[in-house]
Amino acid sequence: xxxxxxxxxxxxxxxxxxxxxxxxxxxxxxxxxxxxxxxxxxxxxxxxxxxxxxxxxxxxxxxxxxxxxxxxxxxxxxxxxxxxxxxxxxxxxxxxxxxxxxxxxxxxxxxxxxxxxxxxxxxxxxxxxxxxxxxxxxxxxxxxxxxxxxxxxxxxxxxxxxxxxxxxxxxxxxxxxxxxxxxxxxxxxxxxxxxxxxxxxxxxxxxxxxxxxxxxxxx
Length: 219
Known about the structure:
Elements: E1 4-7, H1 17-31, H2 38-44, H3 49-56, H4 62-79, H5 90-99, E2 103-108, H6 112-122, E3 130-133, H7 144-153, E4 160-164, H8 167-176, E5 179-183, H9 190-193, E6 200-202, H10 207-215
């Protein structure tokens, strides 16, 4: 039934929430904006950066937005030392799914430069057939990036699954007509994701492979 698995990145593949929060807080203080709370930053994880800044700072000026983007990028890439690592079982699960014939994709709020950097750092890039980023299409929860992935892979919506940890992922998946799998260990509490009728709520990444194997699901 399912042949294409589409993954969010931050909070689903990699444990980067802590660095996103601390980098955003440091950037805001440098720019002269109010320091956002941890919960405030968690709320915007998954959005494209321009949309995230507008949501956190509704009165932000274009100059402040440009400065925030510059300082956030600095802190996230080199100024902040908060560890980021793949969640447990990610690498082996992705490799196993690819070996079994599933097609893998990424749909992320990161920009292209940021995603390419972490794909190289984690050495996971070769596993994904296609990736889409917020700065080259429309930010989540608009379904446009999923429509683009489906069109370019030639996969029907009913044969695809969106795997993510935020309401933005689930809402985007539902609007695109693809199945949803909710991740409980990411930025948004799992209770918030249930309203989007996920096929599975997974607490560890390897549960995805177990679920697909149990279903005998490869199309």
